[in-house]
Specification:
There is one protein chain. The protein is α+β, with helices and mostly antiparallel strands and 348 residues long. The protein folds into 3 domains: 68 residues, no CATH class; 173 residues, 60s Ribosomal Protein L30, Chain: A, CATH 3.30.1330; 31 residues, no CATH class. 41% of the residues lie in helices and 9% in strands. It contains 11 helices and 5 strands. Strands 1-2-5-3-4 form a 5-stranded mixed beta sheet. The longest helix has 29 residues. The N and C termini lie far apart (174 Å).
């Protein structure tokens, strides 16, 4: 018992820290929260700066990653990656091909609408030229007196300017291709306006149906109409028209009469100047081109567009303009008809 009183008494004191029973674990939780928020905002920034096409590629990858990796597509490769390739063609080494929204999308042009607009603009130019020529005729005293012999109209070929004969005022010398002085004045005034537009010119000569005494075997209305057309061409060039604008010069004799009801009418003797539209010009310049067709269906379509079976492009047939109505005199007697025929032959 005496030994127990001598045993030392030990007192243990526990020091409590300032953190309480939680200690420092809250700091770890706060750090995890901040890290998660940084990752969230970084994700939002990446989604906001990624194009729609790349987003679709990412979505496809997470939906079917193996399919995208094997077949390629947006997001499956990167040109800046160490491993080159990607896109639809896995053999390419130039990097993936962008399939997203293009900043400069290609514009699909409507060819029919463009052709219609060009045709409309060309028609406006021809109408404007017609008005300028009419104003030049009205303002020029030397031309105003020949106004009845100058006929202007718009046809399927373009703007047509016709210089016609009158009974007592022919354009050429009798049965010759020699132009009268006033005819040269008319052609010179017309030539001044033709260079203002890019359209090219077709010129044709016409006669009445009065035959030469030698018939068609030697010099005939065909040669006469051709010579008169060429003489008119030379005067147009002398008046200032560019030589390159002339595309066609023909003599049509009496094949295309202005007054079919009276083949001997002096009005049938005329010079026709046509400022051609693009369609008519193409039908002349492309008449010697060939077209190759692969099958029967293509050949049928090609023929319908103006190409024959041999493959040679044929120009569209020129529409013969409807003649202006000409007052027809009462039917003469037999003696009067003979007298008129003799007078017409003398004034060819």
């Amino acid at each position: 018992m005496a030994d127990e009183g001598l045993r030392p008494i030990i007192v243990k004191r526990i020091k409590k820290s300032g953190g309480g029973h939680h200690g420092g674990t809250w700091k770890i939780a706060y750090a995890d929260f901040v890290t998660a928020m940084m990752a969230f905002f970084l994700l939002m920034w990446l989604l906001g700066s990624t194009t729609k096409g790349n987003l679709q590629g990412i979505a496809d990858y997470f939906a079917t990653p193996l399919k995208v990796a094997m077949a390629g597509g947006s997001g499956s490769g990167d040109a800046t990656s160490v491993i080159k390739g990607g896109g639809k063609d896995m053999t390419r080494i130039d990097g993936q091909q962008k399939q997203g929204d293009d900043a400069t999308p290609t514009k699909k042009s409507n060819l029919k609408a463009a052709a219609a607009e060009l045709e409309r603009q060309e028609m406006e130019r021809l109408k404007s030229l017609k008005e300028r020529i009419e104003e030049a005729i009205d303002s020029n005293p030397s031309l105003r007196q020949y106004k009845n012999q100058l006929l202007l109209d718009i046809t399927s070929e373009g703007l047509r300017i016709q210089i016609v004969d009158e009974k007592n005022r022919p354009m050429f010398a009798l049965s010759k291709a020699e132009l009268q002085p006033y005819t040269k004045i008319i052609l010179h005034e017309i030539a001044k306006t033709l260079n203002d537009i890019p359209n090219r010119i077709s010129l044709s000569g016409h006669t009445d149906a009065t035959p030469y005494s030698s018939g068609e075997k030697s010099y005939s209305n065909w040669e006469l109409s051709s010579d008169r057309a060429n003489a008119s061409r030379r005067e147009l060039i002398a008046g200032g028209m560019a030589e390159s604008k002339m595309l066609r010069v023909v003599g049509l004799s009496s094949a295309v009469l202005f007054d079919p009801t009276d083949p001997l009418n002096p009005i049938n003797r005329r010079i026709s100047i046509i400022v051609m539209n693009k369609k008519t010009e193409d039908s002349i310049t492309k008449e010697n081109r060939t077209a190759e067709v692969a099958d029967e269906e293509t050949a049928k379509e090609t023929v319908e567009k103006g190409v024959n079976i041999s493959g040679v492009v044929q120009p569209a047939p020129a529409a013969v303009p409807k003649p202006t109505s000409v007052p027809v005199a009462p039917k003469p007697t037999a003696s009067a008809t003979a007298t008129a025929a003799a007078a017409a032959a003398a004034g060819k």
